[in-house]
Amino acid sequence: MVQRCATTGSTRQVLLIVSMSYVTSPAFIFRVGRCPHTLVTDLTRSSRRELTGATFANNFRNATRKTPWLSSSRYVHNQAFRPSCTRHNSSVDAPLASCPSSQPSIREPFTILFCGRDAFSCAVFKEVHKAKDVWNGLHIATNSDVKTGRNGSRLDISPLKTLGRTVGVPVHEIPKEKIAFKHWLPPPPFAFQSSNGDSDPLVSLSDRHLLITASFGRILPVAILHLFPDTQRLNVHPSLLPAYRGPAPIQRALMAGESDTGVCVIGMGEVSRKKGKAVDAGGIWGVERVTIPENANFLQMQANLAAHGGKILVQVLRDMRSGKAQRIPQDPLTPATPRAPLITASESLIDFASQSASIIARLERAIGHQRALTVPVGLPDGRSVTIADLHVVAPELRSPNDLASLDGESPGIACYSSQTKSLLVTCADKTWLSVDRLQTQDKAILKAKEWWNGVKGMGWVKEGRFQFSR
């Protein structure tokens, strides 16, 4: 297919139509019918008639009114085709271009489906909710309630669900089961059931519909992504992409001892290992670098990055409405690019002989909110010990008494410091770790002095030192 501007006469070879299934897709009809200055030549017909984009779209709409895509969501989007009017210089990477001659310069506000679950999601959502100029409809999709605890005695409710109901926004629960989630579709106005009773939905693709995810924790099925224009699927990711792609970017940045990180608003596409389509690989609409304060922990950075992310997201939405938004591709991954895979249980296990005090302290700040750091076989009787409230003891702050007890000792030797009221433990690289609270397996958590008195009473303290088992 050749695209030509009726005013300037300039042409652009865009797509040779060889498949009727593509031109009858709703994505094609929305995009080709946007600007009356765009002329289309259909090369599949011998006459090669030249039509305006709107006429071309209407002709195919009328001719294919009974085709499968009108009663099924199982159609294929060819996202590579984005017509633009050469007269108006529409960017192929901008949101669907608004032709100044046919539409106002400012687009109408969006109808937004916001997917999330946790405190990060809530902070981002609050910024969007406050920005009344960017939306005229706002819906939440979040996890269903889950029974947790012993015998399901506690009900785990999504914080975003609670927030949505508090502010009066419609909340839609997503099924927990993978199979049910795969076939789940959002409610109207994003998708409608067929009026003839068919099980397949009648898809409503609108250039005003916009999808946002923020710490959603689940990969959206392709069927849901295809309900939205490809330039209007946004994800708020707390890292400077492509660094720390994955589900644990904040934790991984803290564990690595990074001095700064950031937050990006990126596009979303299909995720498929077979097709080589990675998670968090979309083009970047907005980005901001954020400093990591010394000794900052996960919860502090989560709140900080969410606040920045919400503000960047709102600015991107405003730029989309005004036609200023631009999307740039991410830098390519290299072997040195850090990743952010899920935190595993084994990563919370401490080995004083191989880990320095700074590594252990960073680990607590990164994952202590979700997993307790544990010395697997901490006591001579084989029980484990969890440690909390950790600090690195700088060499210049070591008291003479503590030096007398620990100086030159091998990793895993501990003594109680009356000066700091904490347990001091030697670690790798001749470093010291201060521990304020400890918990023996199957016992209550105790302050360092109480725990020390307990192991001392068991006869495990020799000459003022305790040896953590290896």
TrEMBL record:
Q: Which CDD domains match?
A: FMT_core_Met-tRNA-FMT_N (cd08646)
Q: Determine the domain of life of the protein's source.
A: Eukaryota
Query: What region holds the Formyl transferase N-terminal domain?
Result: 208-317
- Output the SUPFAM superfamilies linked to this UniProt entry: FMT C-terminal domain-like (SSF50486), Formyltransferase (SSF53328)
Enzyme class, one word?
A: transferase
Q: Where is the Formyl transferase C-terminal domain?
A: 343-455
Which keywords describe this protein according to UniProt?
A: Protein biosynthesis, Transferase
Q: Which InterPro entries does the record match to this protein? A: Formyl_trans_C, Formyl_transf_N, Formyl_transf_N_sf, Formyl_transferase-like_C_sf, Met-tRNA-FMT_N
Where does the UniProt annotation place the signal sequence?
Answer: none
Which Gene Ontology cellular component annotation is one that this UniProt entry carries? Answer: mitochondrion
The name this protein goes by in its record:
methionyl-tRNA formyltransferase
Q: Which organism is it from?
A: Paxillus rubicundulus Ve08.2h10
